[in-house]
Amino acid sequence: MSHASSFGPAAQTPEQRAAVLARMQQALPRLRKRLSPYVQQLHARYLAGELTWLQVCLALDIEPMKYTPPQP
Fold this sequence. Notes:
- The chain is built from 3 helices and no strands.
- It has 72 residues and is mostly helical.
């Protein structure tokens, strides 16, 4: 399987990105709160592989978290 350079090795598929997002939501309470439709759309675009997490953070004008997902 070739890796997309935009995503780490643990976030190559929509399912893997969903697992990464779920882990981040468990670790960071601000990601568990009720999200605006705009933020929900950004998360959906991340899951679909249209945006990287860095692009999501930049769109929200927040500092990207220093999160490295565990290696499979």
